[in-house]
Structure formats: C-alpha cells, structure tokens
Design goal:
CATH superfamily of the largest domain: Carbon-nitrogen hydrolase
Strand order of the largest sheet: 5-4-3-2-1-14-15
Radius of gyration: 26 Å
CATH architecture of the largest domain: 4-Layer Sandwich
Strand content: 15-25%
Number of helices: 16
Largest sheet: 7 strands, mixed
Number of strands: 20
CATH topology of the largest domain: Nitrilase/N-carbamoyl-D-aminoacid amidohydrolase
CATH class of the largest domain: Alpha Beta
Helix content: 25-40%
Shape: elongated
Length: 553
Amino acid sequence: MKIRLVQLNPIVGDIEGNTKKILSYYNNAENDGIDVVVFPELSICGYPPMDLLERKDFLESVYRFTEKIISATGKSTIIFGAPTENKSGVGRPICNSAIIAKGGGIVDIIHKTLLPTYDVFDEFRYFEPNKEFKVVEICGVKTGITICEDIWNNENEVIYHKYDISPAEELKNRGCEILFNISASPFTVAKPELRLQMLQNHAKALKLPIVYVNQTGANTEVIFDGDSMCVNPDGIPTSRIEIFKECLADAEFVNGNLTGIQNATIPGREERIFKALVTGLNDYLNKTKIAKTVLVGLSGGIDSALTATIACEALGAKNVYGVTMPSEFSSGGSVEDSLRLADNLGLNMHTISIKSLYDAFLNQLDPFFKDTNFNIAEENIQSRARGVLLMALSNKFGHIVLNTGNKSEMAVGYCTLYGDMAGGLSILSDVYKTDVFALSRWLNDTYYSREIIPENTITKPPSAELRPNQKDSDSLPDYPLLDKILKLYIENQADLPSIVREVGNEEIVKRVVRLVDLNEYKRRQAAPGLRISNKAFGYGRRLPIVQGWTSDI
C-alpha cells in the first residue's frame, strides 16, 4: 500500500480554496500511482473554525464541498478531515470526522472520540463524540483511523487530560494492522520531541505502524508546525516532513512496516521559535489580507529589534517600516542603535521626535498635575504619544502596527495600555525576555553569521527610557529569575510553596505572582499574540479579571 502524507496549510473558512488544494494534491497522487492520500484534521475548513461551526450557511458550504471531493475520487483512496452532520438525533449537531472515499463514493466515516477542552481547544462546545469503534478495510489492510487527541490520551504533561478510553487500543483490539492519525496539533517549543515520544509510545505498545499527518501554517494566534511522519512498531520514524512547510512525503506499507526516503531534521530551540514566529506573521497577513506592510516602533531596545528582524524575514525588508520616536529621556545610543538596525536590515526608516507632543500634554495637564511628583503618569504619556503616532501612520498608509512587548513584561504588567501595547499583532507576547536575548544572539552568531541586531542592543541593560537613568531592573527582578518564576507559575501551574522551594526567595515570588494576577485586565485588552507555549496569554489561558482568589503560601 503506497501512502502519501499531505501536510496542508489551510485557511480557516476558505472552504472552496482548501477544497481546490485538496483535489490538486489528490489528483497528483493518483497520477503518481498512490493508493492512499491522507490530509489533516478538518482540512476542508481549517483549524480552529471556532464559532463558524455554529453558522448554518458555513456548514452547508462544508457539506457541499465535501461532496465535491468525494465525487471527484478515483482509484486512490482519500482520507481527509471535515465536520459531518450528526444524524443520531441526540447530542450536538455535528461530529469532527475523517472521511474515507474512493471511486466517487464514501468508503466510511470515522468520528473523533476524544474532544479536548483545554488550552486553545474547545471542541466539546461544537462536536458530538464518537462512541463506537471499527476498523476500515483499505487496499485489503485493516486500518484504524484516529483524529488528533485520540492518540494524545497517554501523556502526562500538565496540559494534557487523562481519559478512561484509548481509541488506539480499541482499534488494535479489533484487528487493526496499521494506525492513521489526522491532526491539527498546534506548535509549542517542546512539541516535536513530545510528539515523537508519544507516537513511539503508541507504536511500541500496540506493535503497530502509525501514519501521522498534521496541519501546518498559522491561523490567527495558533501556529502549526506539521511535523508529519510515519513511525514503525519498533519506534523508528520515517518519512518525517520538514516543519512549518506545506509539502508531502510518501511511504509504503509492506509486511507490517512503513518505508520512506524522506526524514527531515528538526531544528534546535532558537531556530524553531524563529521559524514559528516568521510563519505566524506571514500567514496572519497573507490570510487576513488586513495589510501588506507592517510598522514597528524602534526604541533601540532588543524587543523591537527582534520584532523588526522577524518582520523582515517574513515579509521582506521593503514591506517593513521602522519609526524611532525619541524623547528627552532617550539616550543617543538608542537612536543610533535603531538607525544601525534599520541599515543592517534594509528596512524603511523614519524619525519623529515626541518632545513637543510630550510638552503639549504636560501643559494641558499642568492645572491637575502641579504640586505633584513626577511618576508613572508622566512616564506613560510618552508611551501613549508614541502609540498615537504609530496608529496615525497605520491609518494613513495602511500598515499594520506590530506590538513589540515580550511575555515577561506582559505577565507582570510592565507595559502601558494604549501606549506600547498598541498594535494589530503581538509577535513576542509568548516569548520570555531570556529567550528574546537568546534568539537575538543566535540570529547574529548563527543564522545570519553577521551583526544584524546591534551588539550594543543585546548587551546594554534593558530600559523603557521614560525617566532619567531608568532600568528594567529598578522595577523587576533580573530577567533570568523573573522568567523562572513565570514559567513555573504560568506554564507549569505550580503553586506558591512549590515555586518558593524551587526559587528560594519567598518575597520576590509573592510579588511576581501578585503582579501576574493583578494584570489580567491589561492582557485582556492586548493585541492578539503568536502562541509558542502551552500557556500563552489569550483565549488559551482563561482567568477572570474580577476575582477574590489570591495565590498565597
């Protein structure tokens, strides 16, 4: 049995466009003599479709184009993901399904059993779960078909659920000879290793080969790496596909094993984060059609420098516009660093001083501010003046503003509402400050092998430059300590006693955790951000703004 894995990058809601892609890949596979062509979960509508699934006209379009795919099939069998109507008369109106078709008709339809409701997933809101298990005969082979979460039930990482049933084991018990899984499994930094380990665990335990086909690309905040592959009963992977790329790989099922010639290398931590963010930005603009160009406020700091570098990689430097907006507190070095960065990248660069704007605000506020000390109010006026300028340029010329804040700052509220939080997309909102430094160093030393981000930008103490001689460390713990606390609290969901035992400074831990809890109202108003962790800020981390709960020792 010759199998083709098609690692598709669909657009959510572009049912006709996705269908054209599916049929194009299918027709090519049939011409190549492929027996089975496999596409990702919900490939006809893209993942995640969210409340589009509640629209009658959306579902009718899905059903219509599903029939178009089925009727176009010939000798090759196709397996693709689509919402299907729940005809049982009870439960939710639709199922998350894998459709198996050949010769212009349906061979079978398999529904998803395990419907995740954690992190960015909310499938039980829409779909009715499968309750019966069966194998499907394809090319004379007893085939088990599962959908994404159906094979993630044996993992113990904090975000994963334990289920009382294993669809893969159920299919093995029914005589399955090969297991297929069609997925829309989002990227996280640790996902490639975790995914391979999960597939190996199943393959070895079940003594079955596994064909795993995952979505790639990005839809809004959620990035998909693909990383489709085959895994043999001995746990050895084959036909592994390059991540963040729409492409395909072939395998052949012979005598209980899968053979393939393609085996992509998975990049290291910095490279995979960089590629994920480039993919996220590129697809956000290409799929939404909001804008073709982006605008970045360049402060001379490392966050805006990294954001601009990612933007140039994703869109080309000619489509990136940088603006440096110095105030009386900006150091000469910061302006020079911004100009040097722009020159290194070749992006479009402008300078607009905010001094006169800042003075005008202070003059208007003088009747209210007189006899008070300079504090955060005056500091934030500068940030908000910059935000107004960026948004004005965005409105006038059609650029989308890229927010440059990192996850460490977002976590503790070290950012200004309607100021440096302005933007249409936040590139680094799920990237900790320590990773910002690591990425910047890796870009210079390895990826470009020359100075792109100025050395002074990387080595100077981080500062918002909103008052004389200001440093981030005046308000926050050093970033390595801060990020360690944040990862334990946000990603690992550790309680305070556990964090204190790990970190050893109760006072700092309590202050950081308190800041995280207090600043939920800010994050709720933030730009959408690209997700690279299992607990990104946004709709995957849902906490009430108004709450009486306080984390304590």
